[in-house]
Amino acid sequence: MTEAPAPDRGARSRDAILDTAGELMSRYGYAATSISMISAACGLPTSSLYWHFGSKDGIYVAVLRRARTALLLALPPAEMPGADVAQRLDAFLAEVKDAFERHPHGLRLLLGLGMVQQDASTAAVAEVRHYRDALLAWARKAVSAVLGLHEGSQVADELARFTLRMASGTAVARWFEPGAVLDTGPLRVALLALAAHHGVPLRGALGEDAPRHGATERE
Amino acid sequence: MTEAPAPDRGARSRDAILDTAGELMSRYGYAATSISMISAACGLPTSSLYWHFGSKDGIYVAVLRRARTALLLALPPAEMPGADVAQRLDAFLAEVKDAFERHPHGLRLLLGLGMVQQDASTAAVAEVRHYRDALLAWARKAVSAVLGLHEGSQVADELARFTLRMASGTAVARWFEPGAVLDTGPLRVALLALAAHHGVPLRGALGEDAPRHGATERE
DNA sequence: GTCTATAACCAGATAGAC
DNA sequence: GTCTATCTGGTTATAGAC
Q: Across chain B, what does the average pLDDT equal?
């Protein structure tokens, strides 16, 4: 057997298609990414793409779904280590920034939709909304846990949307400055100020400029 | 003369084309908006579009340029009324929100580009960058004037980018919630907190928590 | 599952009468 | 400046050998 039997050649092709399609679609958007572009970039003929995914729409849905699960897996869970708010918030923001850097396609795929309002299949529309809803749900839960908010509260919702909009804005900025990353410094200040503004008790996180060396784990 | 002579029928057609093209392109993006769509929507044959603008690219450039000048004209100038920071900031944010509501296409056109990195003409790339640079320059100048910062300072740049990213994130959110508007409440709190965090003296705008006496603004 | 070849169609763009 | 008619090329998608 000089040739690898490759019993899962199909699976590897599937992944290759999704990889290149995700790359191209996140860069050029759905409409501007053609089947032939993907085919040429990944080396497989167009008929293979159709065999695996059925249509261009099917590719988009699959790409989107994989990006969603990957991003949500990379984003920090609700339970962050740290006794006080400052510690948890710092760890949280660092992980969020890292996740968005490691999965740059994630948000850009949501931006490059452009099509979803017109001729998109119901499956594509559903997946896009699912993606966005999942991100919002994650943000609400995570922000609530980090800052100690009641998860269904108005404040939690406001802070979650604030965080997501900043992340989206950063993804947009990346069109122009490819090196742009989520600016966690200002975001940290803003989130703490918003929480304080709404009367959220923040033990040990009131020190922005004052040299407050971290209170120990005891309060 | 029952028929209007319409000596400027060409100019009115030009405007009609730009109107519908801007509408469609801001909704579907550049690539997904076809010449025939524009033609059908505005009633003029495709050859008229080519007579006026030469190419699809030319239409995009013209749409973008008009959107830029309209948005920058609607955005508040650097000189805001109000003696103290709080007054100026409130007036400023109200006008910014209003401008983004009145010109919803403005930012969305920048989002729906998708193409600009691949086959776009140099003119389109230049216009896109010009648009974005103009917005950034406006934000730096306006934020500096409102909060009393030195215009070239690091703080002014950070706050300008923060504001623009929030605006971009809001434009993205509008894909999913068409009624979404710039959330000036949280943005106000965040900007004040960021200014205070950097030691900017804010007379009369300390309504969050502790009164912070300002160090000088650092660069 | 992958390949070659091709069908059916629509895109951007042009020619020339009016 | 506007219209009808048309050309060329790329697009999605499929057929069928292997």
A: 89
Long-range interactions of B118-122: CB distance < 8 A, separation 24+: B118/A27, B118/A28, B118/A32, B120/B57, B121/B55, B121/B57, B121/B61
The verdict on a CB contact (< 8 Å) between A170 and B165 is yes
Set of chain A residues whose Cβ sits within 8 Å of the Cβ of B117: 27-28, 175
Q: Which bases along strand C come within 7 Å of a protein CB atom?
A: 1-6, 10-16
pLDDT in tens, A69-109: 999 999 999 888 888 999 999 999 999 999 999 998 988 88
Under a CB-based contact definition with an 8 Å cutoff, are residues A183 and A170 in contact?
yes
CA distance B215 to B219: 12
pLDDT in tens, A40-67: 999 999 999 999 999 999 999 999 999 9
pTM above 0.85, yes or no: yes
